[in-house]
Amino acid sequence: MSRRSLYLNRFAVILSGYLAAVIAAVVVTVFFLFLPTIHPNHADWGSFYRQLGGLPAGLQTGLVVTFPFALPGFLVALALAITCRWRKWLVYSVAGSVNALASLLIFNGLMGSSIVEMQDLLAASLSGGFVGGLAFWAVCGRHIAQWRLESAS
Which tens digit of pLDDT belongs to each residue from 65-89? Predict the structure, then answer.
């Protein structure tokens, strides 16, 4: 396999890992945002069935917003993973949570709002970022350290 095709292959695997991480993070975040509505008409946000109609829009909005705003933090985490040779799933999951916090800070900075105003979203996003980091590790994160060793030899 040529060096160029090797790098393209690795880029494709990392991109698919990022996509898996974004999808997992959004699904978990939306799940935690909708969780209080399962109480039959006693939750502050209304009943589950009333909120269920907004689920597709919530997932779509989450994907559209998360993909670009999580990218800078992902690139930093990826650089750290390569240089520090991360192997453990927990490191990737913690990096996913930190990335969720960073992406919310970037988003709120651009929107001119405070992160304190979005406490529910912050808690849900930290959980989503944790699972997103785990999804990235499952797809390709556990191989990145090995790629670095192969490149060095």
Answer: 999 999 999 999 999 999 898 999 9
**pTM attached to this predicted model:** 0.87
Evaluate if residue 44 carries a pLDDT over 60: no
Q: CA 45, 47, 49 angle in degrees (round to 5)?
A: 130
- Give the 3-state DSSP-derived string for 4-66, with helices as H, strands as E and coil as C: HHHHHHHHHHHHHHHHHHHHHHHHHHHHHHHHHHHCCCCCCCCCHHHHHCCHHHHHHHHHHHH
What's the pLDDT tens digit per position in 14-25? 999 999 999 999
Sign of CA dihedral 25, 123, 114, 75: negative
Q: Which long-range contacts (CB under 8 A, 24 or more apart) does 14-18 make?
A: 14/78, 14/140, 14/144, 16/139, 16/140, 17/135, 17/136, 17/139, 17/140, 17/141, 18/71, 18/74, 18/136
Q: Rounded to an integer, what distance in angstroms lies between the CA atom of residue 30 and that of residue 128?
A: 8
